[in-house]
Amino acid sequence: MKKIVSLTAVFATISLITARADTLADWTFETSQPGVVTLPAAPGAGVAFSSFSPEIGSGTASALHTGAATYSSPAGNGSSHSFSVNTWAVGDYFQFQVNTVGFQNLTVSYDQTSSGTGPGLFNFAYSTDGINFSPFGSPYTVLANATPNPVWNATTSSSLYTLTDNLSSIIALNNAPTVYFRVIDASTNSAAGGTVAAGGTDRLDNFMVSAAPVPEPTTTALGILGGLACLVAMRRRP
Predict the structure, then answer these.
(1) Tens digits of per-residue pLDDT, 174-217?
(2) Of the candidates 63, 35, 68, the residue with the CA atom closest to the CA atom of residue 51
(3) pTM score
(4) In whole angstroms, what separates CA 189 from the centre of its chain?
(5) Angle at 131 (CA atoms; ends 126, 134), nearest 5 degrees
(6) What is the radius of gyration, based on Cα positions, of the chain?
(7) Per-domain residue ranges for the chain?
(8) Rounded CA gap, 224 and 5, in Å?
(9) CB neighbours of 81 closer than 8 A, spacing ≥ 6?
């Protein structure tokens, strides 16, 4: 029994070194908001909507629509503002960029909803060069912001709209100077089951990127030595 307890102490010491998660960036859109801006169709490969910084941490957020679109900041999921866009076409997206140097095991979470005529199917994708994107998981459906679902408002949030992606298996995203995430329209089907209309909107709120610090070699070694010292001390007890 003593050996089991001692080994548990060793692994617990190592786990404490690697388990901490920090927020690298969090866009709540309470100050990082576009107001109401209408932009013409993006020319050629497209020019993204001008970027803005998160409320917590550092990074940039932007969006790209091939057609003329209106960007706005209506009520979020329990907050006063979100990031909303209309005139969706397949391939249009929201984009978020962060620096992960010194961090590993990324997790991304965000709240998302569409109006009844807004897009109902999206892909979540990642990249380290901003050009070549890889989808993470399968396309996912977005709930319509209408009854019987809880309607987004400034005072009450609902976890029904929260999506979480654990990217710890994607080693390329660890300790990288630039990492990109896109939330991409994947279909012409609307959230209510019809066809996406020009006035249909999709909105995001609380887009947060978190990660664990990469342990310094000396810190890891000290943690392991501390655990082993605990093991030796317990083995010497009568």
Answers:
(1) 999 999 999 999 999 999 999 999 999 999 999 999 999 999 87
(2) 63
(3) 0.82
(4) 23
(5) 30
(6) 22
(7) 23-214
(8) 15
(9) 28, 29, 30, 33, 73, 74, 75, 205
What angle in degrees, to the nearest 10, is found between the helix axes of 217-236 and 2-18? 160
E strands along 33-174, which residues? 37-39, 49-52, 56-57, 60-64, 69-72, 83-85, 93-98, 103-114, 121-127, 134-135, 140-141, 162-166
Q: Give residue for tokens 């932007």.
A: 62
At 125, list the tokens. Answer: 């994708």
Instruction: Please determine, looking at this structure, whether the domain spanning 23-214 carries the CATH number 2.60.120.260.
Output: yes
- Give the side-chain half-sphere CA count within 13 A for 27: 29
Question: What is the Cα–Cα distance from 178 to 59, expressed in whole angstroms?
Answer: 9
Which tokens go with 201?
């909107």
